[in-house]
Specification:
Elements: E1 6-7, H1 9-19, E2 24-26, E3 29-35, H2 39-56, E4 61-65, E5 68-73, E6 81-82, H3 83-97
Antiparallel strand pairs: 1-6, 2-3, 3-5, 4-5
Helix pairs in contact: 2-3
Length: about 120
């Protein structure tokens, strides 16, 4: 059985530039920091990412703090950045950045004030 496709850092940077421009390659990992407006938002975000990781059975390193969540992905079994990391990064990015569209019945989280959830890029 063949493992997932692997990427050296240059190839990973090129792929990120096309598909996930807010992510970087840092110390052999795919890396992204999401800015939040406090502890509650950071914990909600981290728990959502944890759910996605568990469903995918591919687990990132998370650094959770008052003002944000850092995500680091690397496939430890391959000792490399792999297609698994890109797939999970794309799922995380989609989930975190999703907002209700025009005409939606959903209001979406406030973008200012005490109920603000995530900083928008």
């Amino acid at each position: 059985m063949t493992g997932p496709a692997t990427f050296d850092e240059a190839a990973a940077r090129a792929k990120l530039a096309q598909a996930l421009p807010h992510w970087q390659v840092e110390s052999g990992h795919l890396h992204r920091r999401y800015e939040t407006d406090g502890w509650r938002a950071s914990m909600l975000l981290a728990n959502g990412i944890a759910h996605l990781a568990e469903v995918a059975w591919h687990h990132p390193e998370l650094n959770v703090g008052w003002g944000g969540v850092e995500v680091r992905l690397r496939t430890h079994s391959e000792d490399a950045i792999t297609s698994k990391d890109f797939e999970l990064a794309a799922m995380i990015e989609h989930w975190v950045c999703w907002r209700p569209g025009a005409g939606s019945s959903l209001d979406g989280a406030p973008t200012v004030g005490q109920w603000r959830y995530l900083h928008h890029e």
